[in-house]
Automatic annotation (TrEMBL):
Keyword Hydrolase: no
UniProt name for this protein: NAD-binding lipoprotein
Membrane topology: Multi-pass membrane protein
Principal localisation: membrane
Bilayer-crossing regions: 31-52, 88-114
Protein's cellular compartments: Endomembrane system
Positions in coiled-coil regions: none
Biased composition (Basic and acidic residues): 432-442
Species this protein is from: [Kitasatospora] papulosa
Domain CASTOR/POLLUX/SYM8 ion channel conserved per the UniProt entry, residue ranges: 274-369
Residue ranges of the region described as Disordered: 419-442, 633-656
Highest taxon in the source lineage: Bacteria
């Protein structure tokens, strides 16, 4: 049994503090009583001391007590009336009532201001903007979309960007403002709450918006949430109402058709997994293509615009290619709204058509003939060699892998082989049906291995392959983040290159852009940050929804696509020629030249030698290490195997 000596001693100060805390916790009246007692215990003795130590104070006791009362009353704002005890009591009562009323009024004002500030900090006030951009939801693409929309703003006419997501407002503002310049931070307005709730959605005034962008979250229910937001938007705008254009993105193809119905006739719905698969498939064997696509999609340099085609009415499309000194024509927008990307050169530009051009801005699309800049003597007229069968290797498996396999299978030349190695610790992919394999150009073979073990990767024989694709696992399939597995795999493959002396040209996907500098790859490889490129694509379409068919065709396996081809296919090696000469040579092959990759600036980490939309009069010496960026329409082809003697590591490629 515990004795008194064994009990810990409590000091008098701690015991008094404990009793005081318990007393305060009882009620508000108790707290007010203690405040009165404390005030009186301090004010009365101090007032009395001030009077007794004042040489000019009255000599009589009653006079000094009256002076002490007046000092205490003035301090406590109880009034300073003197005289009979009744007058003193009435004065004290009146002062207490006045003090209570003033304190109550101050408390009400303070509480109201605090609640209003709390409401503002929660982001629940109504936005009264006009012609603004509304971004609904939160995803990996949100910072890219917002920063690109800010970059696309006209300096003389800035427009607000309003974001509504079910996250903390202060945290959203901190993340977004870190990506935009200080002068543009006032354009970003954040509101907090579920965007799928019509009452909350009405706070951002979608009726008066110029464009509404709906982003999918990384959660498994992200696509369902996008559908819910679109339905809530429909409820806010009203059935049949003429609302703003809507751009939404889903990850699963099963939600695309319902999302299109919910978005309405002015809606555009992207499937991000399909876009990512197309990007990966197009970059296989085309080192540097991801940088080209990123440059095309951001607003920092040149991007696609619509230009007036009046000067070329009833002329051929081929004539427009050499009709703009500072922009590259890539297609037509017909009066019926059809988009023709890289049409045949003899296509007639009918009245009412508009030109799709790659330009710095709308003001740099002036018309001027550049035919005098073409030097026919250096143009190569020999036909290109047909593509040879390729052999590709895919490591890893995730939800986009079936789409990547399908893209590579459809675009591969006959006789090609695609080997797929999946991690034995994860569920394996479904084997392709025999009919699918017969229709495809590549023979797809599956097997599993312990890819999570570095010794397995170091034991691979990658020398027979013309290209390699690395796909990380989906989020939520393990304790590590998807990029962790990808970075370890890239590091093992880099070590394998050093051991064997054979460089493997690979394409890999990363989830977070901050991990891109950590990717250990050679200069002949591409690292795709799928979320960033998808965000750039959404920002472009949000800025001009008429460009949606252009990008849809660019990233589709059929139709026109961005390609990298050796400059030696178009002009003589080591010959000096203008860019207009290469535009004419590409036109003769049914292609649109939009830029080049120069060998002398490949080491530039920012551009990697990519130069889009150079002036037509730019002259340079073209050699075997330079590559031309073209829009080509060669269905059913894929990059040819890379000659190991090519010191640049760039492959001659055909259109997807």
């Amino acid at each position: 049994m515990e004795t008194a000596k064994e009990r810990p001693r409590v000091s008098l100060r701690d015991r008094a503090g404990y009793l005081f805390d318990r007393t305060l916790a009882r009620s508000t009246g108790t707290l007010m009583g203690w405040l009165v007692i404390t005030c009186l215990a301090v004010v009365l003795p101090v007032s009395t001391l001030l009077v007794w130590t004042d040489p000019g104070s009255p000599r009589s006791l009653s006079g000094r007590l009256t002076a002490a009362w007046r000092t205490s009353a003035e301090t406590l704002r109880l009034g300073a009336a003197s005289g009979t005890p009744l007058r003193l009591v009435l004065s004290a009562v009146l002062g207490l009532v006045a003090l209570l009323c003033v304190s109550t009024l101050v408390g009400v004002i303070t509480t109201g201001l605090a609640e209003r500030m709390a409401e503002l900090s929660r982001g629940r006030s109504t936005v009264l903007e006009q012609d603004h951009v509304v971004v609904l939801g939160w995803s990996d693409q949100v910072t890219t979309v917002v920063s690109e929309l800010v970059a696309a703003q006209a300096p003389h006419r800035p427009q607000a960007i309003v974001l509504l997501a079910d996250r903390d407002k202060v945290e959203m503002e901190r993340l977004l403002t870190a990506r935009v310049p200080p002068a543009a931070r006032g354009l970003i307005i954040c509101r907090s709450g579920p965007a799928g709730d019509p009452e909350v959605l009405a706070l951002v005034s979608p009726r008066t918006a110029r464009t509404v962008v709906v982003l999918p979250s990384a959660e498994p229910t992200g696509d369902a949430e996008v559908l819910r937001i679109l339905l809530a938007l429909r409820a806010v705008l009203g059935a049949g109402a003429y609302g703003p254009p809507v751009l939404a993105a889903v990850r699963d193809d099963r939600y695309r058709a319902p999302a299109r119905l919910a978005a309405g006739p002015r809606g555009t719905v992207l499937e991000t997994d399909t876009v990512t698969a197309r990007l990966i498939a197009q970059c296989v064997g085309r080192p540097g293509l991801s940088v080209v696509l990123g440059d095309l999609l951001d607003f920092a340099g040149d991007e696609f615009h619509l230009a007036d085609g009046t000067a070329f009415h009833l002329d051929s499309f081929g004539a427009t290619l050499l009709g703009h000194p500072n922009s590259c024509v890539v297609g037509l927008l017909t009066p019926e709204g059809r988009t023709l990307l890289n049409p045949p050169a003899d296509t007639v530009v009918v009245p009412g058509s508009r030109l799709i051009v790659l330009a710095r801005d709308d003001t740099s699309t002036r018309v001027e003939s550049c035919r005098h800049l073409v030097d026919p003597s250096v143009i190569v007229s020999a036909p290109s060699e047909p593509d040879r069968p390729t052999r590709l290797l895919l490591l890893g498996w995730n939800r986009t892998a079936p789409l990547v396999v399908g893209q590579l299978r459809r675009t591969a030349p006959p006789g090609s082989v695609l080997d797929v190695i999946t991690d034995s610790a994860l569920p394996g992919p479904r084997q392709p049906e025999p009919e699918d394999t017969k229709r495809s150009g590549a023979d797809v073979r599956f097997r599993s291995a312990a890819l999570s073990r570095p010794e397995t990767l170091l034991g691979l024989d990658v020398s027979p392959y013309d290209g390699l694709v690395v796909l990380g696992p989906d989020q939520g399939e393990g304790p590590d983040r998807p990029d962790d597995w990808t970075l370890v795999t890239l590091l093992a493959l880099r070590l394998l290159e050093e051991r064997t002396g054979h460089e493997v040209r690979l394409v890999t996907e990363l989830v977070e852009d901050r991990n891109r500098p950590l990717a250990s790859v050679n200069k002949g490889s591409d690292v795709i940050v799928s979320g960033k490129l998808t965000g750039l694509l959404m920002a472009q379409i949000a800025q001009n929804r008429h460009l949606a068919p252009v990008f849809d065709e660019l990233f589709s396996p059929e139709g026109a696509g961005v390609c990298l081809r050796p400059a030696g296919r178009y002009v003589l090696q080591d010959a000096e020629a203008t860019f207009a000469t290469l535009v004419a040579a590409a036109r003769d092959r049914g292609e649109c030249a939009i830029g080049y990759i120069g060998h002398e600036s490949r080491t530039d980490a920012a551009t990697q030698g990519v130069r889009l939309n150079p002036p037509k009069d730019e002259r340079r010496v073209w050699n075997a290490e330079d590559h031309l960026v073209v829009l080509a329409t060669d269905p059913g082809t894929t990059p040819a195997p890379v000659d190991q003697a090519d010191s640049t590591g760039a492959a001659a490629s055909a259109a997807p």
